[in-house]
């Protein structure tokens, strides 16, 4: 695991893991040891298990790997967010942040999301290679999440955030100097954003988070910055990889393109199946056993780390027959674990699926035919244990 071959095509490894057992002892690239849960039933249970907690400080755990290179304030502020919290702290913070992500509010954004997708796809060049990651897959969800948060939109700020996401999500594969530099830039930028929202509040999530500091159970200044950091990076990077890997599959399969173009009613389920099949999130963030416990018959000691193999669970043949087959009519596609389970279920799940369906519709309406501009085995993939996706994806779009 964690090799370049695994990053480019992890499915054979997942099949091996399923064949050999439900829980595996693994060594991560950082050198840390953890238990890896890979079968769907066990992964789903682990994600919702209240005895698997998120806060490593309860066991005196020090930051792992490249995180340990960060100055204390950067580490404790930027990486202290709801992904690393347990109740009751998690309950309080999530309640304050979740309101803009309600089903009703996200549904009202559909027209804006579709308009954005069409405009950006219409701007793509024809009959020449274009890096779809840079031209569409990354800026499209980033602009939407920035609109939601109230982050000023400019080409400079988008490129800066994309660089932070690429470096900080690379984890063990990142250059230590670049990692510290990007974390420092992100902290400074978010401190400026918070100051701006305090001076000039708007009708956006960042302003609401800043205003909550005046409430009795409101966010602390550190929680505001940490949560903004998490929402900006998590709010676009995994969606960008979902889109790029989905377009890769569509580029390689003309019959799949035609089928989806002729049956737009399948778009919502196609988004679910792409989430399962491409699995942009390979591993859920660390959890720790709150006490001695058993997972799928394996004894886990208190304080030991547990990682849930989301992508492996999405390839479990016990739940998804023929898991290596991409099937946009797959009835059980909605059972994927790409957004997690339980109290840490992804806040932006509905928004991400809406963005994906709108993107597929816009691309197929404008460009029924498009192809990969390079050999598939020459694609360079994002390095890192947690996230999977191509760093660049040159496609050639034919005219309508």
From TrEMBL:
Q: Which residues fall in a compositionally biased region of kind Basic and acidic residues?
A: 1-10
Position of the signal peptide: none
Q: Annotated region Disordered: where?
A: 1-23
Top-rank taxon: Bacteria
Q: Show the Pfam families listed in the entry.
A: p450
> CDD domains under this entry?
CYP107-like
| Keyword list, A-Z | Heme, Iron, Metal-binding, Monooxygenase, Oxidoreductase
The family this protein is said to belong to: Belongs to the cytochrome P450 family.
Which PANTHER family does the record cross-reference, listed alphabetically?
A: P450, PUTATIVE (EUROFUNG)-RELATED (PTHR46696:SF6)
Could you tell me what this protein is called?
Answer: Cytochrome P450
Species of the source: Streptomyces alfalfae
């Amino acid at each position: 695991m964690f090799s370049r071959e695994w990053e480019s095509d992890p499915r054979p490894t997942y099949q091996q893991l399923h064949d050999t057992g439900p829980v595996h002892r693994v060594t991560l690239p950082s050198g840390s040891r953890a238990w890896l849960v890979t079968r769907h039933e066990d992964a789903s249970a682990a994600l919702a298990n209240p005895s698997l907690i998120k806060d490593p400080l309860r066991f005196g755990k020090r930051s792992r790997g490249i995180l340990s290179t960060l100055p204390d304030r950067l580490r404790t502020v930027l990486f202290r967010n709801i992904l690393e919290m347990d109740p009751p702290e998690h309950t309080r913070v999530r309640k304050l942040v979740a309101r803009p992500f309600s089903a009703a509010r996200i549904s009202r954004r559909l027209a804006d999301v579709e308009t954005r997708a069409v405009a950006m796809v219409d701007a793509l060049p024809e009959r020449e290679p274009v890096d779809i990651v840079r031209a569409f897959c990354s800026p499209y969800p980033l602009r939407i999440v920035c609109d939601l948060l109230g982050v000023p939109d400019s080409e400079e700020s988008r490129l800066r955030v994309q660089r932070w996401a690429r470096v900080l999500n690379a984890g063990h594969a990142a250059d230590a100097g670049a990692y510290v530099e990007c974390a420092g830039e992100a902290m400074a930028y978010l401190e400026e954003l918070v100051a701006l929202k305090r001076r000039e509040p708007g009708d956006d999530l960042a302003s609401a988070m800043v205003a909550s500091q005046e409430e009795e159970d409101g966010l602390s200044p550190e929680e505001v910055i940490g949560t903004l950091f998490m929402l900006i990076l998590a709010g676009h990077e995994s969606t960008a990889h979902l889109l790029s890997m989905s377009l890769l599959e569509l580029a390689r399969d003309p019959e799949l393109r035609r089928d989806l173009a002729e049956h737009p009613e399948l778009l919502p389920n196609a988004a679910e199946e792409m989430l399962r099949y491409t699995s942009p999130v390979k591993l859920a963030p660390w959890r720790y056993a709150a006490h001695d416990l058993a997972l799928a018959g394996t004894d886990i000691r208190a304080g030991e780390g547990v990682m849930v193999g989301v992508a492996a669970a999405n390839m479990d043949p016990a739940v998804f027959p023929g898991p290596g087959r991409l099937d946009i009519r797959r009835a059980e596609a909605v059972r994927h674990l790409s957004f997690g389970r339980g109290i840490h279920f992804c806040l932006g799940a509905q928004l991400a699926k809406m963005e994906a369906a709108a993107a597929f519709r816009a691309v197929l309406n404008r460009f029924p035919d498009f192809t990969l501009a390079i050999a598939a085995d020459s694609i360079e993939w994002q390095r890192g244990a947690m996230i999977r996706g191509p760093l660049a994806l040159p496609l050639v779009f034919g005219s309508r």
